[in-house]
Amino acid sequence: MKQPNFDDYTVTVRPLAANEGGGYLASIVEIPGCASDGETHEEAIAHLRDAFDDVVAALRHWGQSVPAGKAKSPASFVFRPTRSLYAQLKSTAESEGVSVNALLNEAVALRLGASLGAEYLHRARKVRSRARA
Predict the structure, then answer these.
(1) Which segments within the chain are labelled E, that is strand?
(2) Which of 38, 50, 76, 104 makes the best surface tag, with the fewest CB within 10 Å?
(3) What is the C-alpha separation between 124 and 51, in angstroms, rounded?
(4) pLDDT over 70 at 48, yes or no
(5) pLDDT for 125
(6) What pLDDT is attached to residue 108?
(7) Is the pTM of this model over 0.70?
(8) Do 29 and 14 meet the contact criterion of CB atoms below 8 Å apart?
(9) pLDDT per residue as tens digits for the range 78-104
C-alpha cells in the first residue's frame, strides 16, 4: 500500500482566539479531525505533519481507508450565499486573516468531521502510544 504524502492534502491554518488558547490551528481538509495547533503558523503545520502520520497509522490499523489527497480528488462547486451571509463570511474571514474560501473549507471540514474528528484523534493517540511502547 502506497504511503500517503502530506503534501498531497489541503492544509488550512487559522489563528486561534484567546479563549481557544491562542496560537494557530492547522488542519487537513480531506481528513476530518486531522488537526494540530502551535504557537506559530509554522509550528502548527509541523505538528500537523506528526498528527497526519498518526492518523494514517490509526486508520490503517483499524482497516479503514485513508481519504485521498487533493492530487487525486480535485473538486469544486458553486456556492451562492445570500448577501447578508456573504457579508458575515467576508467579515469573519478578514478578522481571522484568511480568505472566504479557506474559511468555508474549514467550516465544512469541521462540520463534516465533528463526529469523526474525536474518534480519529483518539485512535491516532492509541497507535502512537503503542508504537512507542
Answers:
(1) 11-15, 24-28, 35-38
(2) 76
(3) 8
(4) yes
(5) 53
(6) 77
(7) no
(8) no
(9) 678 889 999 999 999 898 887 888 888
DSSP 23: S
Mean confidence (pLDDT) of the chain: 80
Nine cell digits for residue 119:
474518534
**pLDDT of residue 51 exceeding 70:** yes
d(CA 85, CA 73) in angstroms, rounded, equals 28
Counting Cβ atoms within 10 Å, is residue 19 exposed (0-12), middle (13-18) or buried (19+)?
Answer: exposed
Residue with cell 483518539: 122
Instruction: Please say whether the beta carbons of 24 and 16 come within 8 A.
Output: yes
- Going edge to edge, which strands form the sheet with 11-15? 11-15, 24-28, 35-38
Nearest to 69 by CA among 9, 7, 5, 11: 9
| Rounded distance between C-alpha atoms, residue 58 and residue 116, angstroms | 13
Domain segments of the chain as ranges: 6-62, 83-131
